[in-house]
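Hey,
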Amino acid sequence: MASLMEDLIDVLNKEEEQYQGLIELGKKKREVVIRADIKTLDEITATEQEVASNLQNLAKKRTRVLNDMATVLGRNPGEVTITKMISYLEEQPVEQKQLMEVKERLLQTGKEMEAINEQNEILLNQALEMVEFDLTLLKSMRQAPETANYNKNACNTGDLLGSSGFDAKQ
């Protein structure tokens, strides 16, 4: 059981390290979005994908270790969580304390990452709105207003003004 506990704490520590790495990438991403540096944003996104893959592997390992611990304790493997493991360790205060500390650090890191992701989401939405505004402005600049010229049937001819917006002919 002691080696399983060490494995669990090790996996949780590695998960926290990966999340800390994502936090740093999120901070860099914020600066890159502000500068509108698409190339660097692409590189950061690729790195984030690698970290996400590592986190997925660590999550699988954590689940395996928890299932092994549940089997040793005679519990249902599907129902064992870190919080329940903490409560099961009442007779082992050292391990219980270590597990509680790792859990709290991981939760704090998750909250910090969530805040950074929310800020980046807002920045990205604002950047998209700005791009949409620019595109609308460019489209409207290419469209010239129609003249108020009518044909003999009193229908608008739909003639467009020149690109300068003024009719220089007299």
